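Schema walk-through. Below, the input block comes first and the output block second. Nothing else is stored per chain. Lengths vary across the set, and this one has 239 residues.
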Amino acid sequence: MKATSLRARVRAEMIDEIKEIARRHLATDGANLSLRAVARDLGMVSSAVYRYFASRDDLLTALILDAYNALGGAVEEAESLVPRESLHARWMAVCTAARTWAVAHPHEYALIYGSPVPGYRAPEDTVPAATRAATVLGRIIRDGYGSGAIKDNDDPFPAPDVEVDIRRIGDAISPGTPLRVVSRALSAWVMLFGQVSFEIFGQLQNTVTTPAAYFDHQMRAQARYIGIPPDEADSSLEA
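--- output ---
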């Protein structure tokens, strides 16, 4: 193996080890990461960590990218296994995959959907990773509208400044889909992560005894709100 290839492999392995230690700190310290603490757990002097991450914010950005990509990958894989014509099943696969990933990785979920980290501003290069999961939703509503299964609705059009935002998002994740369909889908998307956040951050404790079933019920309601018709197999559940 060439020396340059060996150095690259060693560097990649060290970066992975640093990020793994940092994820453990997320579980105990939240996003209040300290490169000095990470270095201590690695048995390194703190200055050595700076060879791999120039600052705490660079390490946070790497963890955020990993979390968004892991969530996006889980959603993409789950949705890809469902027949294209089964819009309702595709939507439910997306919702279930997002919740399953969040429940399995609560601290990484909190990093990307919890309280903002004081003093940290995510760079623009996190946007593609952050929108991976939403782009899957965009394909579902675009396919549904294109096939005639999802209809435009008679919701009032938003104020001009809000309309600009919704059109920009729609153009990014579901080009050609009517604004009011996109608007409802975005509301459902917020509801999805609101439900997940309530569960992850404990707001459902002593209130909801079957969180998975409760989540499933609410996501079926959101499918109706978007205008996604139930599949034949789900008709009895939707009655």
